[in-house]
Amino acid sequence: MKTIRTLKISPKRHPELCQIPCNKEGLQKKLQAKSVKDLGILELEKGIYVIYHKYGAIDGLPPNRYVHEKILSGDFFLVQIKDGKTVSDLPEEVFNRYLVRFWEPENHTEEEAFFSNLKSLFDGILKNENPLL
C-alpha cells in the first residue's frame, strides 16, 4: 500500500511527522470514522488540505484544534493535493510552517466541539446522510 509523509495533529499533543495510507479506506481507519463519507476536507491554502473526521465530536472523539471556524475532534492530517486529485508528501517548508502553527495543543470542551460542528451535522442530514447511526 502506498503511503505519504504528512503532519499528524492529535488532541493535547504536539504535531508529529507520520506516514499515512494514500487511500480513503486507510484514512477512514486512521481517523476512526464509521464510513469514508465521514471524512472531511478543508483547504488551508492552495493545494494544502486538512483531512479529518467530520463527525468526530458526535462520535465522542476528544476536541483537538480550531480550524476554519470549527473545532476539529480526534486526529487530523495535513496533505498536499496536486491537480485536485493526486495526494502527495507534504513539502518540507509547508510541514515546518504548520508544525509551528499547530505546535501548542488547545483546550476545548466536548460541548464546544459539538456545537461548533453542528453545521456539518445539518449539512449531512440535508444530503440524506445520517451521522448519528
Count every helix, treating DSSP H or I runs of 4 or more residues as helices: 4
Q: Count structural domains.
A: 1
Q: What is the 3D shape?
A: globular
Instruction: Summarize the main sheet.
Output: 6 strands, antiparallel
Could you name the ranges where pLDDT drops below 50 across 5 or more consecutive residues? none
Q: Measured on Cα atoms, how large is the radius of gyration?
A: 14 Å
Termini Cα gap: 30 Å
| Category by helix and strand content | alpha+beta
Mean pLDDT over all positions: 88
The sequence of SSEs as H and E is: EEHEEEEEEHHH
- Classify the beta-strand content into a percent band: 25-35%
- Could you tell me the number of beta strands? 8
Describe the structure.
The chain has one domain. It is 25% helix and 34% strand. It has helices spanning 24-30, 92-101, 110-116, 118-126; strands spanning 3-9, 16-21, 39-45, 48-53, 63-67, 70-73, 76-82, 86-88. The strands form two sheets. Strands 1, 2, 3, 4, 7 and 8 form a six-stranded antiparallel beta sheet that branches. Strands 5-6 form a two-stranded antiparallel sheet. The longest helix has 10 residues, at 92-101. It is globular.
Give the arrangement of secondary structure elements.
Blueprint: E1 3-9, E2 16-21, H1 24-30, E3 39-45, E4 48-53, E5 63-67, E6 70-73, E7 76-82, E8 86-88, H2 92-101, H3 110-116, H4 118-126
Which features does this protein show?
133 residues, alpha+beta, six-stranded antiparallel sheet, two-stranded antiparallel sheet, 4 helices, 25% helix, globular
